[in-house]
Structure formats: C-alpha cells, structure tokens
Amino acid sequence: MTPSPTPRFGLDRRTFLLGAAAAGVAAACGGGGSDEPEVSYSVVQRYPSDVFVPGEIRLPFSLANAAEFITNGPDELGAQIVDLDGAPIGDRITAVRRDITPAPYYAFRTTIDTPGVYGIKIDGGPGVGANFQVMERDQVIIPRPGDTLEGFDTPTVSEPGGVDPICTREPVCPFHSMTLTEALASDKAVAYFVGTPAFCQTGSCTPALETMVGVEAEYAEDYVFVHAEVWTDLSATEVAPAIEALGIAFEPALFITDANGVVAERLDGLWDATELRERLDAALV
Fold this sequence. Notes:
about 280 residues, alpha+beta, 14 strands, single chain
C-alpha cells in the first residue's frame, strides 16, 4: 500500500519567509571574486524542486534582501540555465515581473530534455545560482502536461465527503458545486485548484485562489473551476482523500485540462491573474 503523501506548503502556513518547505533561498554572499558579478539580492525559489520531468519547466522566483522581499524589482530579469559545471545550456531566458501579494515574482520557462541536476543563474542574483532537478518521467507520479487527469469525487456543498470545511476561504469559494469527476465529464476544459487558503493567507494559496475567483466569469463558457482542500479539517493532521488520489505532496497547484481531460498546464506555487489567463487561453487552442 502506498503511503499517503504529507503535503509540503509552497509557503509557510502564515508567512513565506518563516519557513518555505517547498521553496528555497539562494542567498547573496556579497563580495565574491573579481570574476563574479555583483550580487544585488537573494533569489527565493517559489516552486517544489522535485516534480520536474523532461519538457518545458517553469521556475518562479521572488527577490529578497536580508530582511524582506523586494517589491520594486526590475520589470524584466534575464537568466541562464547551466549544468553542474556551470556551462551554459541553451539560450538566455527572460521573465517579466508579475505583481502579487506578498511580493512580485518572475516565472522563467525553459525546456530541458535530459534528466539531471541543473542550475539557473539570475542576473543580479548570487553567482552560484539556484539548483533544480529534472527527474525521469516514471519517478514523478503527479499528473503533468500530456497526462489524462483522473476524476475524483471532490467535496461539494451537497456531498462534503468527510471534509470540514470543504473550503477554508471566507466566504467559501464558488468552486464546490460539482465534483472533479463531474467537471471532467462536462465536455468543458477544467481548472482544478488544490490548496488551503486558511493556512497561507499571506503566502501562495489565498492569492492563487483569489485570481481564479476573479477570472472565473470570463471563462464560464469554456471552463469548470473546481477546488479541493488539502486537509480533512482545520487541525491539518489528516490528508484529504482528494490529495491522496493525486499523489501530490505540495500546495498550491493548479491543473488545467483541455475539454478531453488531458492536462495542458500545471502551475505550481503561485501565479497572477495575467499568467493565469495566458495559460487558460493556451489550453483552449
């Protein structure tokens, strides 16, 4: 029997900087050798680092100094993917600043075809960069682009399925009128959000869910939005069945499918309304 995953929070339950289990900080060391670029800030990883497989990879970062997030960073950042020896891989990449609470982020995208450990060196960040690992596809069980999203009877207003509350947002979000199974059978595309707003009000889950609430009306003709909480209750001691079904061990995550239930995009960690619209639109093409 496969053990139930214990979710890692993409941000701490209350504040990001007090302990990001699925995030990391590549801290600025200052000074450096004469060949090292000047370090202007630290880069804060805002993604789980052990869920990547070959293909397109999304790497969102925020910027910070020794005490807090940087909220007035550049409009655009450049970066270079490197191997373990520091040799460049592919062309330089860029990411625009996306403003959300509690701090802006930059979501770099790159394509990597071979499993292994890589680094990303962000302009103005520490010379050592931040490492990430690309796993073999069979080592990652979480649904990814190209996979069919399996249905599950997620908690609804009429059938909570032992989860109380079914939504820790106040007021309850409008994404609990049908189960994921019903949504996938609706002949519409699906946006399936997994996260616990009550436990990261100033982190990722609340802002991520609020962006979905804000854009739902624009996509009502093409999408069904569904939300599932991570825990069975507010004690946060028992993982909800919907999470066990996914094999997911972090939050928040958003699975965007096409009308056939095939995952077109998975957003991990955080996203703003603009990026969300971009990815919802892309799944309909």
